[in-house]
């Protein structure tokens, strides 16, 4: 199995673990971490493909993804903190007033 | 993309470490352990980037992810995630079971996809690893970034601006003062 | 003279319009003057037309085009031939007399003007029916007279009985009219035109036996509805709820005879359809006999006369059924005179006895109402067929033709004649002979009818007597007169048999009178115990063979139940229910989807993952 | 590729918005008057609207380094976006004072979100696509949670954030696979490479994941779960802007990707899009039937309308102009409807949106407001003389032209179902007796905003040709650089 | 523009809209002014429509007074108006009934105080309704037709909903959704037709005349007719789709019921002919047997149901279902007589059903109830009302000499030439019709004078002004039906020749 296939499988596994985490865990922060892991998995794919395709576009993309991840972390934690102020919980299921 | 035996060993090792880290994030009992798991994952990935001749990105990964984001998480954890949340039944529950089943199916689909891959048919670019080594990764990256991808670059800056303003606005303790 | 025939129609129409709009303002005297003069003038024109059409085979006078839709082209035009002229004369003549009579009879009624408006409208509609030159115009007249009979029967609509009777009359007529309408449609489908002349000219060529039978049968259904034959006669007895002059005019002399006229008018078709002719004859005979039996036990004088009318109409249909159209028309004419007379007499009795008409509460009116008694006697004699009176000749003519055609029918006819004599003289003796059974005060101030009512009765009495002579065998003016139109086949020369039959029917009539005399004058107790002995037969007859109840049970109630089922159950529950059910189903689905939205982020993430897996799976495996 | 031939003018509207946002941020530091800042933002947005109109009328403008194109398609999307932004700002001038929201951040983020949407509409490169999508998403996450004093807003923001991030991860993964399959990240490059790599599973998977990412953005079923909660939790003016802006941008990107980049794979993606359309319409309409809260009902109705637009997308090339027209019509009527809700909303008890009961007898209390709401309701239901009907007509005729008769039939039946819950609102307003006294008239800006929306809905209904000519030729020039 | 270049039809269609705007401009308080404007506008429209009828050249069968202007060229939709022999008399009928409705609304309308005072919005919606209805009859572009067809629902929704009886909310919602559901598929059919035109002529068009020349492969006409037919079947209504009618008619205020029964039901029949018979003759032929059976059931079902109704307004509602089912039967049979009967019956049914509903309104006004059981002997205190009710009822029952008879009889003659059994069954309807109408008339007008009816006032000024024109028309059209049959003759012949080509009957 040559390197690119291995790397793609690896990133797919990481991506899946992240996705599973989002569904399994109930702590908002942990869910958020899992999403970060998913994004990193995609970064790995990009860089592997960039290496394979010998073009820099992939790496530029990773660069942009990092910027996005940073902004997301900022906003995400902001939201979690603002919720925490109302209800001392980070459990996502507690936060379900809007339904029906 | 021929891989020397040493590289394959290292790749496998780092891969395993990354997967371990990811697993610990989702399985750890306490949020702090999952944060640490995430750190391990990021470091392993950084190492792999470097091996894939994207040195600058590896370093950037270490600084941005491992440095900034993990620290931020730990900080947030300390602020609110401190107490042991009543995380009973985090793995049980129909939702979790269904979720993981679907994820496995998703993984199978991607794996099926990768297996049937007949090598990337995409047009080969010109930037071979030795070109990178020769010109220096940062220089190359900087040039393309600021020349060809100037618009995304600016957009990234706008994005960060939004992130900052949003975060400050959300997290600021809003006294009820204005209303009275 | 023929050119002004349309005036016959115009005058009654003017009478209607004037009385309708200005009736209340111009006072009772003016109303009666307007109404009576309208009919009088129309009668004069009718006489003129009668003279003018003698010997002619019919003149058509188009007035205006009514409907033109593709090949369906209907003109509004008059057909003036001896047959229609005769009918017009009879109609206008009798109704003129009855108009005069009504002035007296309806004097105190508050809605005086409306009464005369309806009466004029009736004559107008009847004339349209009679003078029509095509089936559709006849149908217009047909339903028009049906409407007027509805309005006049239910004239005193405060009384529920009168309102019900009016409604019953209109609906039963409508059933008959449906048959007539279907007949018209069949004719149009066959011929493409509704003109009498056209239809009769092309009939032999176009119509097959089945078709002509169908047409004639449908037309006959219409006739039974209008002329109250079995099975659609049930409305006539109830129609007595209306004012008596109305009964005299509409339910004795004119409207009910429309059926006979229609059959006579279509004699060409009926000749081509022997089966229908047989049906007509047998129904005629059966109705005659059947109605006579009921008249025997009837207590209400007007209802007796009503059954007698049904019976006499049965005779007329018997006549046209056996092909003796002239005899039928002749009897129609004479019947119009003496039956109208009898009704008017009954009217004057009611007038005198403040509305009391039950013969068992009257009696001995000979002294009190001598003129009415005399006139009633003449009418009764004519009806019973006493020799030298008009009824004798016309009825005998029918019996004679019936005998030629089939002895059985003749026998039934003869039996009915006997019963007729019995029941009419029973009415006479019980009402006018013996001691009176009326209350004291009614009896005291019973007085003779005023002149305005007596004169028409006298004229009718005269006509009831001399009417017969215009139809003497060989001298028969009527038959001669109608010859060009009806080409009635000439009877075998009046051989001995005709005279013998004449004698037989005279004997039968006198026998009937004698029996009535014996039962109701000599031994008045006999009828009472007779009715006890034959109690079941008596109740059967008095309950009018339960025909009304039969119709109610078989036709009216089931329809009403189905209607109730639809209105209260099927429509709101099933048809509407289905619609509302669909709406509720959508609502329920809505709630269902709402509950899926359980507010928990992780289940939302799950739905996203489901979507991902499905779409990815589709794309990869396609 | 040197700096010289960079055509700044091709992204003029977006840059104007960015500038306006920066000015607003700065003004907020100095100026405490919320209304003033609002007017400033309004000026910025109006300038953008004018700029877009001028560019639309002007000659074709080249693309910006094949990153973002200013073709007619992008400009019409910018037109819709700037119209929505103008109305949104107008509507929120008074609202944010009443609900006590921080003016500077509010307007700044709003403008940034708007520019993100415009960039997304104009994006002809995967990277611009992803970044502008993230800009508008993150701005909207923040805006959704801006009323920090209310737990519901926080909850809405959290849900929107987590699910948004989750979905954009898949989108990104799709982009990676596309990059892997075609070797380039610019849409034109991919479009060129598609015919040759037609059957490569990586390309197909990439397309699938991209479709999923945008399906989430436009709230197609089964990715729509977030919409009702987020729309109800967020402040009404944000919901108004979000329901129109994000949807329009999402559809613009979806159409550009599907119709311009993968026309040859039409047979592949027409059925999933069709099925998505049917599911979205039906789920949205049926769920809306059971809603007692008007705001939440409008959330479900926006899902349903996403379904109708998806029918246009499923119609492929024929449907592009129909989609654009529908988006413009939807912008006007939906923001109008929310404007009326905002006028009725009282801060304390209507935090979760105006209940249907509150609309009782509105015709007697505020006749003109009720009349406007009636226009919006009937237009949303697709009644003829109004814009909503011609939107549907245009979209369904495109579906019929592409042989998707079944979609048109289901669409038409759905609009009948929708008529019920729209009419319920009108019935409550017109037929029921008024329950409470008439509120005081709100600020003029809100009335102007509602008025523009109402007049626009009616005009677009009676004489839609002026917009139709604009959207007519968009397909021809769809390709970026 | 038509020969004279004068946009007569556009003026007729859009004048009421102008009137509606004018009404809005007048103050809410000036009720008299509003009523005057409404009456003036409707009268002018009546005059113009009669002028149009006069301008119409009876000899030619095709479309006249045609007007054409581009509306949405990119979708092939154009603004096209026109009238032919068939739809010629529907415009004056509509205009007349709207004048009558305005007059009947002279005294305040509505069941509660709030609605009775809302005179301005009442007349606003009424005039809008007139534009919608006139538009439906005059439109020749399918999409324009659909726009008017659906737009007309909005004013009707408010008229029933706000000024109706107790269950008005339910009734108006049901009416709106039912009609909209019925005509939903029609939109798809119209689009499909436009597409077929695009396929064969290269350009999208919805012009009715070009679409008529389209040669459609077989299954298409049947499906298209089915989709169009459903919308018209709901509107007429035909048997299973009629359950909205009793509620809508009963709950709507009297003037609106007059319009609902008199005009809106004609849109369904007009649709069946214009878009059924003329556009897809083969489709109609294939569906004809089913439609005929439904129509027959409709006649008997509705008549029987009318027999046992307790509320007089529902009796007349069901009677109108029965009469219209007969008209549908006439359309389906489609020969010279039946189509002439259809044209005649469309006009005459509009007139006598309007008269009947006005009388029901007067009855309800006098006694505050519509339950037949509570009436009795009203003819004595109110003779004029009695006579008017009698004439209107006899017109409805189809008494020869009045307008109901000519149409009904022509249809029956036409149907008889087709399938005799159907004619017999339909004729049964005539008997049932007489029965329930007379029975209702008797229980209200005749019989012993009910204590409470003794004081009932007879008809005065406004009632007579509203009723007399209708009664005069009932009689005049009865005696001179050719006033309508001759002008419509040429078009009917054209219709017949087209229908004959696909006649399903022997």
Can you give the helix content of chain C as a percent range? over 70%
Distance between the termini of chain C: 98 Å
Q: Could you tell me the strand content of chain C as a percent range?
A: under 5%
Report the count of strand segments of chain C: 2
The 3D shape of chain C can be described as: globular
What would you call the shape of chain D? globular
> So how many helices of chain D?
19
Which key features would you list for this structure?
heteropentamer, A: 100 residues, mainly alpha, Helix Hairpins, 0% strand, E: 506 residues, two-stranded antiparallel ribbon, 21 helices, 2 strands, 74% helix, 3% strand
At a glance:
With 481 residues, chain D is mainly alpha-helical.
Topology:
The complex is a heteropentamer of chains A (100), B (180), C (622), D (481) and E (506).
Chain A: H1 3-24, H2 28-53, H3 57-86
Helix pairs in contact in A: 1-2, 2-3
Chain B: H1 5-27, H2 31-51, H3 55-81, H4 94-115, H5 129-135, H6 137-147, H7 150-171
Chain D: H1 12-30, H2 34-57, H3 72-98, H4 103-122, H5 126-144, H6 151-182, H7 187-193, H8 201-217, H9 226-233, H10 236-261, H11 266-289, H12 294-314, H13 320-344, H14 362-365, H15 367-381, H16 387-401, H17 405-430, H18 444-462, H19 465-472
Helix pairs in contact in D: 1-2, 1-4, 2-3, 2-4, 3-4, 3-10, 3-13, 3-18, 4-5, 4-10, 5-6, 5-10, 6-8, 6-9, 8-10, 9-10, 9-12, 10-12, 10-13, 11-12, 11-17, 12-13, 12-16, 12-17, 13-15, 13-16, 13-18, 13-19, 15-17, 15-18, 16-17, 16-18
Give an overview in words:
The complex is a heteropentamer of chains A (100), B (180), C (622), D (481) and E (506). Chain A is mostly helical. Chain A has a single domain (2-86), classed as Orthogonal Bundle (Helix Hairpins). Helix content of chain A is 78%, strand content 0%. In chain A, helix 1 (3-24) packs antiparallel against helix 2 (28-53) and helix 2 runs antiparallel to helix 3 (57-86). Chain A is elongated. The model of chain A has no long low-confidence stretch (mean pLDDT 88). Chain B folds into three domains: 1-86, NADH-ubiquinone/plastoquinone oxidoreductase chain 6, subunit NuoJ (Four Helix Bundle (Hemerythrin (Met), subunit A), Up-down Bundle), CATH 1.20.120; 93-124; 125-180. Chain B contains seven helices and no strands. In chain B, helix 1 (5-27) packs antiparallel against helix 2 (31-51) and helix 2 (31-51) runs antiparallel to helix 3 (55-81). Helix content of chain B is 74%, strand content 0%. Residues 176-180 of chain B have low confidence and may be disordered. With 481 residues, chain D is mostly helical. Chain D has one domain (3-477). Chain D has 19 helices and no strands. The model of chain D has no long low-confidence stretch (mean pLDDT 88). Chain E has 506 residues and is mainly alpha-helical. Helix content of chain E is 74%, strand content 3%. Chain E contains 21 helices and two strands. In chain E, helix 4 (90-104) packs antiparallel against helix 6 (119-138). At the A-B interface, helix 1, helix 2 and helix 3 of A face helix 1, helix 2, helix 3, helix 4 and helix 6 of B.
């Amino acid at each position: 199995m040559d390197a690119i296939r291995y790397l793609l499988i690896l990133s797919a596994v990481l991506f899946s673990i992240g996705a599973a985490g989002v569904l399994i865990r109930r702590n908002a922060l942990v869910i958020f971490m899992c999403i970060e892991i998913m994004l990193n998995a995609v970064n790995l794919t990009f860089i592997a493909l960039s290496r394979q395709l010998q073009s820099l576009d992939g790496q530029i993309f990773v660069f942009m993804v990092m910027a996005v991840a940073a902004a997301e972390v900022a906003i995400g934690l902001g939201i979690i903190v603002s919720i925490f102020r109302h209800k001392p919980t980070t459990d996502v299921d507690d936060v379900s007033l809007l339904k029906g | 993309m021929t891989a020397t035996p040493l590289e394959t060993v290292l790749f496998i090792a780092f891969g395993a470490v990354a997967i371990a880290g990811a697993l610990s994030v989702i399985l750890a009992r306490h949020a702090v352990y999952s944060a640490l798991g995430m750190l391990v994952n990021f470091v392993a990935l950084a190492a792999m980037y470097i091996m894939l001749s994207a040195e600058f990105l590896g370093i950037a990964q270490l600084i941005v992810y491992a440095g900034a984001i993990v620290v931020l998480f730990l900080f947030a954890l300390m602020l609110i995630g401190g107490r042991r949340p009543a995380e009973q039944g985090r793995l049980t529950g129909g939702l979790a079971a269904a979720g993981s089943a679907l994820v496995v199916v998703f993984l199978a689909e991607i794996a099926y996809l990768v297996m049937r891959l007949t090598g990337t048919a995409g047009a080969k670019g010109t930037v071979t690893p030795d070109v990178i080594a020769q010109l220096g990764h940062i220089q190359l990256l900087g040039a393309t970034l600021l020349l060809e991808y100037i618009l995304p670059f600016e957009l990234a800056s706008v994005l960060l601006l939004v992130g900052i303003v949003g975060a400050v606005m959300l997290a600021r303790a809003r006294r009820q003062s204005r209303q009275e | 003279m023929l050119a002004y025939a349309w005036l016959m129609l115009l005058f009654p129409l003017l009478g209607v319009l004037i009385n309708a709009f200005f009736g209340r303002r111009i006072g009772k005297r003016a109303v009666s003057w307007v109404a009576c003069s309208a009919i009088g003038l129309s009668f004069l024109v009718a006489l003129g037309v009668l003279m003018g059409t003698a010997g002619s085979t019919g003149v058509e006078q188009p007035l205006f085009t009514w409907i033109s839709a593709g090949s369906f082209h209907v003109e509004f035009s008059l057909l003036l031939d001896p047959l229609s002229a005769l009918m017009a004369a009879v109609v206008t003549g009798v109704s003129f007399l009855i108009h005069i009579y009504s002035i007296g009879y309806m004097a105190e009624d508050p809605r005086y003007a409306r009464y005369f408006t309806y009466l004029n409208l009736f004559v107008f509609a009847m004339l349209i029916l009679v003078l029509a030159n095509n089936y559709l115009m006849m149908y217009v007249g047909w339903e028009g007279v049906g409407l007027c009979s509805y309005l006049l029967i239910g004239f005193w609509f405060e009384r529920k009985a009168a309102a019900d009777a009016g409604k019953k009359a209109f609906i039963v007529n409508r059933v008959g009219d449906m048959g007539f309408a279907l007949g018209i449609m069949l004719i149009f489908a066959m011929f493409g035109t509704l003109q009498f002349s056209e239809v009769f000219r092309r009939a032999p060529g176009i119509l097959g036996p089945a078709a002509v039978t169908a047409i004639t049968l449908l037309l006959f259904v219409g006739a039974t509805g209008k002329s109250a034959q079995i099975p659609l006669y049930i409305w006539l007895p109830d129609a007595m709820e209306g004012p008596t002059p109305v009964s005299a005019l509409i339910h004795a002399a004119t409207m009910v005879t429309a059926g006979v006229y229609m059959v006579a008018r279509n004699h060409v078709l009926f000749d081509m359809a022997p089966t229908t002719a047989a049906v007509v004859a047998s129904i005629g005979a059966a109705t005659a006999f059947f109605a006579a039996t009921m008249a025997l036990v009837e207590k209400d004088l007007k209802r007796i006369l009503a059954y007698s009318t049904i019976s006499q109409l049965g005779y007329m249909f018997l006549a046209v059924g056996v092909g003796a159209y002239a005899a039928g028309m002749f009897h129609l004419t004479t019947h119009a005179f003496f039956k109208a007379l009898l009704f008017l007499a009954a009217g004057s009795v009611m007038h005198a006895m403040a509305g009391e008409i039950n013969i068992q509460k009257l009696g001995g009116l000979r002294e009190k109402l001598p003129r009415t008694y005399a006139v009633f006697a003449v009418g009764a004699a004519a009806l019973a067929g006493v020799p030298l009176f008009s009824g004798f000749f016309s009825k005998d003519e029918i019996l004679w033709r019936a005998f030629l055609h089939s002895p059985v029918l003749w026998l039934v006819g003869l039996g009915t004649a006997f019963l007729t004599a019995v029941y009419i003289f029973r009415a006479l003796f019980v009402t006018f002979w013996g001691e009176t059974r009326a209350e004291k005060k009614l009896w005291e101030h019973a007085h003779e009818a005023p002149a305005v009512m007596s004169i028409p009765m006298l004229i009718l009495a005269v006509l009831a007597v001399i009417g017969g002579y215009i139809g003497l065998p060989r001298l028969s003016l009527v038959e001669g007169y109608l010859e060009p139109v009806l080409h009635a086949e000439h009877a075998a020369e009046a051989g001995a048999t005709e005279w013998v039959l004449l004698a037989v029917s005279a004997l039968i009539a006198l026998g009937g009178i004698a029996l009535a005399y014996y039962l109701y004058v000599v031994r008045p107790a006999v009828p009472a115990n007779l009715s006890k002995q034959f109690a079941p037969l008596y109740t059967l007859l008095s309950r009018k063979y339960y025909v009304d109840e039969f119709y109610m049970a078989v036709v009216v109630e089931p329809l009403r139940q189905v209607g109730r089922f639809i209105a209260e159950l099927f429509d709101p529950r099933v048809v509407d229910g289905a619609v509302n059910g669909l709406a509720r189903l959508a609502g329920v689905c809505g709630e269902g989807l709402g509950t899926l939205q359980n507010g928990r982020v992780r289940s939302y993430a799950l739905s996203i993952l489901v979507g991902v897996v499905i779409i990815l799976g589709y794309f990869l495996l396609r | 590729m040197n700096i010289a031939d960079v055509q700044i003018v091709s992204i003029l509207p977006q840059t104007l918005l960015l500038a306006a946002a920066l000015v607003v941020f700065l003004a907020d530091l100095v100026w405490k008057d919320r209304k003033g800042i609002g007017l400033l933002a309004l000026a910025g947005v109006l300038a953008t609207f004018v700029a877009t109109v001028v560019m639309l009328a002007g000659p074709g403008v080249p693309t910006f380094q094949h990153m973002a194109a200013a073709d007619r398609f992008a400009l019409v999307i910018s037109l819709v976006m700037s119209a929505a932004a103008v109305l949104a700002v107008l509507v929120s001038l008074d609202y944010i004072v009443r609900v006590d929201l921080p003016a500077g951040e509010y307007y700044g983020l709003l403008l940034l979100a708007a520019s993100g949407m415009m960039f997304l509409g104009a994006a002809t490169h995967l990277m611009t696509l992803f970044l502008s999508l993230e800009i508008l998403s993150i701005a909207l996450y923040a805006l959704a949670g801006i009323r920090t004093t209310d737990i519901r807003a926080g909850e809405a923001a959290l849900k929107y954030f987590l699910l948004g991030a989750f979905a954009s991860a898949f989108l990104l993964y799709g982009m990676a696979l596309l990059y892997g399959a075609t070797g380039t990240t610019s849409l034109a490059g991919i479009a060129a490479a598609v015919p040759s790599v037609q059957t490569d599973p990586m390309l197909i998977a990439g397309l699938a994941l991209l479709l999923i990412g945008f399906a989430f953005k436009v709230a197609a079923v089964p990715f729509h779960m977030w919409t009702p909660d987020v729309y109800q939790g967020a402040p009404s003016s944000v919901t108004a802007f979000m329901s129109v802006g994000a949807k329009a941008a999402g559809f613009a990107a979806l159409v550009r990707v599907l119709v311009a980049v993968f026309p040859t794979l039409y047979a592949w993606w027409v059925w999933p899009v069709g099925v998505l359309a049917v599911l979205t319409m039906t789920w949205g309409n049926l769920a809306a039937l059971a809603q007692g809260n008007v705001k939440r009902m409008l959330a479900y109705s926006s899902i349903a309308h996403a379904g109708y637009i998806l029918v246009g997308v499923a119609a492929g090339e024929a449907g592009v102009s129909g989609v654009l027209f529908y988006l413009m019509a939807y912008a006007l009527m939906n923001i109008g409807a929310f404007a009326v809700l905002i006028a009725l909303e009282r801060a304390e008890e209507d935090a979760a949106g105006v209940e249907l009961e509150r609309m009782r007898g509105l015709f007697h209390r505020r006749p003109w407001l009720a009349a406007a709401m009636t226009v919006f309701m009937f237009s949303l239901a697709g009644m003829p003389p109004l814009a909503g009907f011609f939107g549907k007509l245009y979209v369904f005729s495109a579906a019929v032209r592409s042989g998707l008769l079944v979609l048109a039939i289901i669409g038409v039946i759905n609009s009948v179902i929708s008529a019920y819950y729209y009419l319920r609102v009108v019935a409550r307003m017109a037929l029921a007796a008024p329950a409470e006294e008439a509120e005081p008239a709100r600020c003029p800006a809100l009335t102007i905003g509602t008025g523009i929306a109402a007049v626009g809905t009616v005009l677009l209904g009676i004489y839609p040709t002026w917009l139709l000519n604009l959207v007519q030729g968009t397909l021809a020039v769809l390709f970026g650089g | 523009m038509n020969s004279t270049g004068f946009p007569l039809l556009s003026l007729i269609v859009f004048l009421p809209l102008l009137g509606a705007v004018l009404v809005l401009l007048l103050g809410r308080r000036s009720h008299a002014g509003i009523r005057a404007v409404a009456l003036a506008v409707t009268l002018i429209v009546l005059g113009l429509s009669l002028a149009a009828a006069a301008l119409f050249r009876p000899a030619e069968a095709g479309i006249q007074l045609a007007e054409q202007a581009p509306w949405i060229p990119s979708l092939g939709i154009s603004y096209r108006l026109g009238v032919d022999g068939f739809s010629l008399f529907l415009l004056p009928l509509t205009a007349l009934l709207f004048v009558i409705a305005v007059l009947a609304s002279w005294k305040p309308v509505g069941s509660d105080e709030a609605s009775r005072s809302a005179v301005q919005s009442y007349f606003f919606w009424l005039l809008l309704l007139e534009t919608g209805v006139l538009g439906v009859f005059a439109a020749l572009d399918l999409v324009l037709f659909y726009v008017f067809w659906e737009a007309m629902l909005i004013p009707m929704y408010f008229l029933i909903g706000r000024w109706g009886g107790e269950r008005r909310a339910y009734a108006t919602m049901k009416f709106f959704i039912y009609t909209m559901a019925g005509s939903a598929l029609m939109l798809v059919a119209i689009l499909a037709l436009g597409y077929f035109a695009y396929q064969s002529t290269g350009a999208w068009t919805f012009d009715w005349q070009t679409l008529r020349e389209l040669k459609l492969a077989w299954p298409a006409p049947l499906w298209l007719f089915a989709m169009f037919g459903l919308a018209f079947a709901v509107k007429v209504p035909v048997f299973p789709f009629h359950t909205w009618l009793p509620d809508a008619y009963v709950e709507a205020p009297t003037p609106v019921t007059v319009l609902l029964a008199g005009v809106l039901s004609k849109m369904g029949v007009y649709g069946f002919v214009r878009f059924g018979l003329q556009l897809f003759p083969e489709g109609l032929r294939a569906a004809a047997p089913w439609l005929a059976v439904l129509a027959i059931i409709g006649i008997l079902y509705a008549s029987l149901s009318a027999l046992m109704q307790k509320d007089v307004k529902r009796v007349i509602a069901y009677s109108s279902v029965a009469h219209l089912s007969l008209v549908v039967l006439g359309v389906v049979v489609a020969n010279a007589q039946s189509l002439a009967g259809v044209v005649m019956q469309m006009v005459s049914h509009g007139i006598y059903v309007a008269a009947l509903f006005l009388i029901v309104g007067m009855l309800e006004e006098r006694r505050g109830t519509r339950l037949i059981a509570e009436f009795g002997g009203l003819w004595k205190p109110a003779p004029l009302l009695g006579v008017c009710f009698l004439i209107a009822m006899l017109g409805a029952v189809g008494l020869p000499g009045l307008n109901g008879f000519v149409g009904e009889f022509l249809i029956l003659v036409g149907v008889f030439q087709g399938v005799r059994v159907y004619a017999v069954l339909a004729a049964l309807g005539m008997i049932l019709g007489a029965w329930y109408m007379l029975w209702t008339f008797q229980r209200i007008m005749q019989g012993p004078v009910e204590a409470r009816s003794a004081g009932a006032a007879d008809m005065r000024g406004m009632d007579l002004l509203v009723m007399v024109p209708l009664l005069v028309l009932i009689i005049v059209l009865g005696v001179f039906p050719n006033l309508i049959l001759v002008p419509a003759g040429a078009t009917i012949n054209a219709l017949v020749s087209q229908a004959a080509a696909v006649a399903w009957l022997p």
